[in-house]
Design a protein that fits this description.
single chain; about 10% strand; alpha/beta; globular; five-stranded parallel sheet; about 50% helix
């Protein structure tokens, strides 16, 4: 039996690589992310060029930590099909026009048939109010949407 596929969105990598946060919610998400990461061999992980770009941005020391985490994970390209689906996600109000990278995270996962998209982005990606719209837009474009979830959900916590 093949392993489930998981697109790892940048917020998860950021939570794993960051220094322990003083905010209890963020600290709990960091711990959850690390627990999920420790079990990553259960899955076939992928990232995209968008994740790579986001991980390399910012403080060079912090970026180095993020980049080292994704160093051996296959990188999915930003294809024409992914760009078209991302445009559909924005035009049909699944994702705000101000967040094209979030639309690309979802579209790259969908276009590549990835089963799960793991994220801490509850504002635009793992949003309970917009998730049905996102899923329908993916289906309308001929793709099976990834199951969007947090590391907690993927762990069954």
């Amino acid at each position: 039996m093949s392993k489930p596929t998981v697109y790892v969105e940048t917020t998860v990598i950021g939570h794993i690589a960051a220094r322990q946060h003083s905010d209890i919610i963020v600290a709990a998400r960091q711990l959850s992310s690390q627990r999920w990461w420790d079990l990553r061999d259960r899955y076939r992980l992928v990232v995209s060029q968008i994740v790579v770009d986001e991980c390399t941005a910012g403080d060079p020391s912090a970026a180095s930590g993020r980049v080292s985490l994704i160093a051996n994970i296959p990188v999915l390209a930003v294809t024409v099909a992914a760009k078209q689906l991302a445009e559909g996600l924005i035009l049909n109000r699944g994702i705000p026009a101000t967040e094209p990278r979030d639309a690309l995270h979802i579209s790259i996962a969908a276009v590549n048939g990835i089963q799960y998209l793991v994220t801490w982005n509850f504002r635009h990606i793992a949003n309970a109010e917009t998730r049905p719209t996102i899923e329908q837009i993916c289906r309308d474009h001929g793709y099976v949407p990834p199951l969007i979830c947090s590391p907690d959900e993927l762990l069954g916590a």
